[in-house]
Structures are given as C-alpha cells and as structure tokens.
Design brief:
Helix content is 32%, strand content 22%. A seven-stranded mixed β-sheet has the order 2-3-1-4-7-6-5. With 374 residues, it is an alpha/beta fold.
Length: 374
C-alpha cells in the first residue's frame, strides 16, 4: 500500500499534545508550528482520523516546492499528476494561505492553483470546456510560507472537533478537541476520579469519559476520505469494528456539576449522544457549595471569563468561591482555563505552571495546580 507524507493540524499550543498522541499510536513525528508530520498509508489516514482527540485535521502532503512567481506556481501545480488523484467530475475547492512570501495575494494564489489543476485535468481527460465539478469533494489546500509552497489534500472534511454528539444551543462551549487537549495535559487516564465543577454543556466531562472508556472520538462520523474514489472502502468500517473491541467499561468516578439545571439537561443529552450518560454523575450545585469525599484525582474547569466589564466582578467572585471550595482539595491536580490575568489573585494561590492558549480568538491561560498526593 502506498505510503504518504501525512500531517495533523491543530490549534496553537497543542502541537506537543498531538505529537504525543501520535507517538502513543506508534508514529514517529516531526513538529512545526500548527503541524505534526508523520508517514502512513490509507490505513493510517483512517486510524488517525478515528483516534486523535486533540487534532483538527489529517492532510496528505502532495507536493512541496519553492514559489517565487505565479508562473512558477502554475508550472509546479500543473506538473502534478492530478488525474491520479481527482476523477473527471471531482469537486476540488482550494483553500489558500500565504505568509511572509513574494506571492502574498491569497486570491491570486488560489485562482492560479485552481487554473493549473483545471488545465491539467482537461488535458489528461481530453475534455473541452469546463469540468463539471458535480461529484465527490476533494478538499485541497495551498499554503505558502517564506516562498515554500505546500499542496495538500484534506482527508478529514469537517474538523475533527465535530464528533457528532453535541446538540446546538446558545452558549459558547469549548470545542471538543480543545477540551480533549486540556485533558491530555493532565495525568488523567480513567483510573482516578475526574471532576468538572462548572460543566456547562458537558464537553470536558464527556471527553474525559470517552478517554476513560477508550472510545475513539471519531467513531460516529464520516470523513472526506470516505468519498475518494481511489480510497479502499473496506478500511474505515474494519477499523471502526476494531475500535469497538478496545472500549473499556470500568473507570473511576466522573463528576460533572453546574448551578444551571437547564444547561445540565443539555449536557445529559450530549452525554447520551456520546454513549457515556451512565458514566458521568451529573449534579446541580453551585461551585461555592461543591463538596466531595473523593481523593487523588483531576479537576478541570472552564469558569466564566468576565470579558465584559459588568461581568468581571461576578466572574472574580466565582474565582474566590472556587478558591474556597476547590483549593483545599489538595490531593487533586487542578486545571483552570480563563482569560482573566487576575485569576490567581482571586483564587488565592499561584499556579504551579501556566500555559497559553487561544480559545477562538481569545487569549486564555491554563492555570495548573499540581497535587499533593495522599
């Protein structure tokens, strides 16, 4: 089976998390900003789309070359054997990005790449006029950085954070792969208790349950590769069935609480859709009233950020309440994500470590308080 150069993309700051996931799946990796590269066959394309918890997409690197002029860009793209990749009726949208390069006009880059592919396919298929683009979609990507161009095929389709279990509602929950990435930065493996005391729509607790049960996060969904005409159609269902045999039933308690009963009902629907409703104990309780007899576990929370001035005082009052009820649980490793730079002051303790992330476009810090094991 043909071996490809593959790479996973991810949110800024999660490169090492995705690299570790890939290493744990048995791949040798190399990392740069926003990408982790590895080698693999079609089976590895399916496996990584199924199993990676914190990545965004898996792409096949088709070609890498220098591009100092539009003529050069056209010639390099045209020289690729597009008929091997794209059937005559393929839809092939081209995403583009150019950073610190001579070819800085992204619309022009996109149109030149598209034209080169169309010209090559019309030559290869001996067509006259337009290509129909009425068939399956093959999402392409041209990325130019410091005059080095990369042509890629996206095997994922909708981002990997779209697991398929979350119902839409009016809030702004963490993306599933972001929540999973936060969990990957903790010692949690399902053998010790897990608590999310401000669970909202339940994403963090659900991702913890999926990890504890070793459920492949992509097990319910379809991917772009399912529609590629040259892709072996047997691999995906075979690896789904194999993944089901690896699921675990036993794990330590997972608690998810929130002050808002209506949002907890949404969290329960999400957990049901993910197949983990019976694995999470949901409870309506304000963080100031939270209490537990559990020990030696992990706490993760994504408390309100108080972005607007009128919300900030309320958010900082919650941080104080978190400090009063959660800080004494010193046998737990504790992790809190917020954009408030004053969090430690109101929580009442300096973090062991901080890590910077962007939740959407919002700069946040992940405050890590390591446990005193009993």
């Amino acid at each position: 089976m043909k071996e490809y150069t593959l790479y996973a993309t991810m949110g800024a700051g999660f490169e090492s998390v995705v690299a570790k996931e890939l290493n744990n799946l048995g791949y040798e990796t190399s990392t740069e900003n926003g990408r982790v590269f590895f080698k693999g066959t079609q089976k590895d394309v399916v496996k990584t789309n199924l199993w990676l918890r914190s990545a965004d997409r898996i792409k096949i690197l088709l070609k890498e070359f220098k591009a100092f002029s539009f003529d050069q860009l056209y010639d390099e793209v045209y020289s690729y054997d597009w008929a091997e990749l794209l059937p005559v009726d393929a839809q092939f949208p081209v995403k583009r990005r150019s950073v610190r390069s001579k070819l800085h006009s992204e619309p022009d880059v996109q149109s030149i790449v598209k034209k080169a592919i169309v010209d090559k396919l019309t030559d290869q298929y001996r067509r006259r006029g337009f290509l129909p683009e009425s068939g399956a979609e093959y999402p392409l990507d041209i990325h130019i950085y410091k005059d080095v161009a990369r042509l890629s095929l996206d095997t994922t389709g909708q981002s990997l954070f779209k697991r398929g279990y979350r119902v839409e509602h009016g809030g702004a929950p963490l993306k599933e792969n972001f929540a999973a990435g936060l969990i990957e930065l903790t010692p949690f493996d399902g053998s010790h208790p897990f608590i999310d005391p401000m669970t909202g729509s339940g994403t963090i607790a659900i991702e913890a349950a999926l990890k504890a049960k070793n459920i492949a996060p992509g097990i319910w969904r379809k991917f772009a590769f399912d529609n590629f005409d040259w892709f072996d159609k047997k691999i995906h269902p075979e690896l789904v069935e194999e993944a089901k045999t690896k699921e675990k039933q036993e794990h330590a308690p997972i608690l998810a609480s929130d002050i808002d009963q209506s949002i907890l009902e949404i969290a329960k629907v999400n957990a049901h859709n993910a197949g983990v409703l019976q694995d999470i104990k949901f409870k309506q309780v304000a963080v100031k009233d939270f209490a537990t007899d559990l020990e030696n576990g992990v706490i993760i929370a994504n408390p309100p950020y108080g972005k607007r001035l009128k919300d900030r005082e309320a958010a900082e009052k919650i941080y104080e309440e978190m400090g009063q009820t959660l800080r004494p649980l010193s046998s737990f490793s504790q992790y809190y994500l917020t954009s408030d730079p004053q969090f430690e002051k109101f929580f009442g303790a300096r973090a062991t470590k901080k890590r910077k992330f962007y939740n959407g476009n919002l700069r946040t810090d992940y405050y890590q308080y390591w446990a005193n094991k009993r």
